[in-house]
Amino acid sequence: MEHERDLLDEIAQHVRVIGDLDDVERNSRLHWNARYAAGGGPRKTTPHPWLVHHFWRLRPGRALDIACGMGRDSIFLARRGFRVHGIDFSAVALSEAQRRARAADVSDRVSFILADLTAFAFPREHYDLVICFSYWEPKLKATLREAVKPGGFIIYETFNVWWKWTRPEVEERFLLQPGELLNWLKDWHVWAYREVGSDLPLTRGHKAVSSIVAQKPRSG
Ligand SMILES: C[S@@+](CC[C@H](N)C(=O)[O-])C[C@H]1O[C@@H](n2cnc3c(N)ncnc32)[C@H](O)[C@@H]1O
């Protein structure tokens, strides 16, 4: 706890703190902070291939990166002209994300926000792009859709139920059901969709993920 308080003090000058964390989420936040502080968690600096692959579809604008971790995708977007909000509840991860943004000379285009996503008030029709990699919270389905401007995009990729074959300890509520992303955005234009896992030898390092690129209708 002492160590975590020190970290929070250290980054307070760079990061805006919004909202309070309830007890359940605090436990989970402590888990993530401990994981990152011990050198674990996702630490790559390269953006996710699904985002890079579909980037050509996008025009620079306002982007939201939920569960941004150490900021790999936020920084990728900021370097390409987006103004980005990256949200995560791990102070340890955001401290590193902020350091990386400074090193990439994009700290004026990306704001990292320390907040619990399940208690965050997303602005309505504010973002041209919402991205998320490796996080799923069904409670956010409605508010994330609403946060996107007409004509804007959601690019999403996270673990699906087949991940349990390799990671039986993962709680099923954090995993996507077959077709869940498609169903979530079924009234949007779906440019790309895939489900990896059901027919792949996951033991050879494949990750069981579902991925989508969808665009909100411009009207209606
Ligand atoms: C698997 S990591 C993904 C990080 C990043 N998107 C990446 O792929 O490098 C999941 C992230 O979700 C964050 N997280 C989990 N629950 C959260 C919540 N309720 N509010 C905010 N962040 C949360 C964790 O702190 C962690 O950084």
Q: Would you write up a description of this structure?
A:
There is one protein chain. By secondary structure, the chain is α/β, with parallel strands linked by helices. The chain has one domain (2-215): Vaccinia Virus protein VP39 (Rossmann fold), CATH 3.40.50. It has seven helices and eight strands, in the order αβααβαβαββαβαββ. It has helices at residues 2-11, 23-37, 49-54, 72-79, 91-103, 141-147, 180-184, and strands at residues 16-17, 62-66, 83-88, 110-114, 127-133, 148-159, 189-195, 209-215. Strands 1-4-3-2-5-6-8-7 form an eight-stranded mixed beta sheet. α6 links the parallel β5 and β6 (148-159). α1 packs parallel to α5. The longest helix is centred in the N-terminal third of the chain and has 15 residues, at 23-37. It is globular, with a radius of gyration of 17 Å. Mean pLDDT is 88; it is low at 11-19. The protein binds S-adenosylmethionine. S-adenosylmethionine is lined by residues 25, 28, 32, 42, 67-69, 72, 88-90, 93, 116-118, 133-135.
